[in-house]
Design a protein that fits this description.
single chain, 381 residues, Rossmann fold, 2 domains, seven-stranded mixed sheet, 50% helix
């Protein structure tokens, strides 16, 4: 039969085993806190780990006897010890999660700092490039302003030794092949939104029969036109439109700098050599106020059916491909350039599209008949 000491020892061993099973191992944490902010949390948690269960310091009086009594009575706080251990483990988990979150935030902050530096470098490079291009454009414009529109060789809007048609014959040609004024005006309505709220009056260079001037007048947009055909000018004036007879480039050269809100030109540049077209664009850039608009429409050289119509007009000098006109507009100083393809042929005049090849053939053979380059004068900073 077991003695009292043996029973007490067995009971103590059982209590210690039960407490050890109920108290989970301490969650592992880094030796040093990731951030100073978490040090205030980690220190109390580490200190709390020392008090999961009651202990007797070795240096205290009667430490051995007290420890024996404490081991014998440990079953009295078994539940509290388990609760303390579990709460301590939860606190360790919270600290670890906070440190992981802080580390993730630090990584993201460093990444965004790198992105900000890249953006700043890109912005600096873009600003330098913009200043360089603007300087080049200013140089071109200053050079062109010094030229006389009448005395500079090679910049005339007429082609030397080119045959000309009587005005009455060309007016009849337009009536027969260009379409009615109603049809033309319907197509030109597309450009009206670009001219709302422009910083000045609109100049229609080569206004012809005045279809677009009538649209502008209906919209309450101040506008005037210029055309070299006296019969067309008389017809426009009879309709109450402000139109003058003369050369479009000369008219632009006579306009004060930044005095216009926009310059539009429909089916005109194909009547000029390349030098005259660039002179026209450069004069337009000088005359248009910051924030103003340029609209230049001509025949779409990417469409073979349109090119057939191009050579139908005996006064056409040369076709102007979209990329060529876009380049000249850029060289003259216009920005935010866009190309708009206009006047698509009806389905009855195109191939029936049953495959991707049919669509590609349609684009080449029966594509839109016209295109326009639209550009803006940079707003004043």
């Amino acid at each position: 039969m077991a003695t009292g000491d043996e029973l007490a020892a067995a009971l103590a061993r059982e209590i210690r085993a039960a407490v050890a099973e109920a108290a989970p191992a301490e969650a592992e944490l880094p030796a040093e806190p990731v951030s100073e902010e978490l040090a205030d949390i980690r220190l109390p948690v580490r200190r709390a780990g020392q008090y999961v269960t009651p202990t007797i310091p070795d240096a205290s009086r009667f430490a051995g006897a007290k420890s024996t009594v404490l081991r014998l009575l440990r079953f009295l706080w078994r539940g509290q010890a388990s609760f303390n251990a579990l709460m301590l483990e939860a606190a360790h988990g919270v600290v670890a999660a906070l440190e992981r979150n802080r580390a993730a935030i630090d990584r993201e902050a460093r990444r965004f700092e790198g992105m900000s530096e890249d953006l700043a470098r890109w912005k600096t490079t873009a600003e330098k490039e913009a200043r360089r291009r603007d300087s080049e454009q200013d140089t071109r414009i200053a050079y062109l302003e010094a030229l006389s529109s009448r005395s500079s060789p090679g910049l005339s809007t007429t082609v030397p030794n080119a045959p000309t048609l009587p005005e009455s014959v060309y007016a009849l040609f337009e009536e027969r092949f260009r379409g009615s004024t109603v049809e033309v005006a319907e197509k030109q309505k597309f450009y009206l939104p670009f001219l709302w709220n422009v910083p000045g009056p609109v100049l229609d260079a080569g206004c012809g029969r005045g279809e677009f001037l009538r649209l502008l007048k209906e919209q309450g947009i101040a506008a005037r036109g210029v055309d070299s055909n006296s019969l067309a000018v008389e017809a426009c004036r009879a309709a109450g439109l402000d139109v003058r007879e003369g050369d479009a480039i000369d008219a632009l050269a006579a306009a004060p700098p930044a005095s216009l809100g926009a310059v539009v030109s429909f089916q005109v540049v194909e009547h000029w050599p390349a030098a005259a077209t660039f002179r026209f664009l450069a004069e337009a850039r000088r005359a248009i106020a910051p924030g103003g608009v340029l609209v230049v429409e001509t025949v779409n050289t990417d469409s073979l059916s349109a090119m057939n119509a191009f050579y139908l007009d005996p006064t056409h000098v040369r076709p102007v491909p979209p990329e060529a006109l876009r380049f000249l507009c850029d060289a003259a100083g216009f920005r935010e350039l866009r190309v708009e393809y206009r006047s698509p042929l009806p389905a009855s005049e195109r191939l029936e599209e049953r495959s991707g090849n049919d669509a590609r053939l349609n684009a080449i053979l029966f594509g839109p008949q016209d295109y326009a380059v639209i550009g803006w004068v940079p707003a004043a900073e």
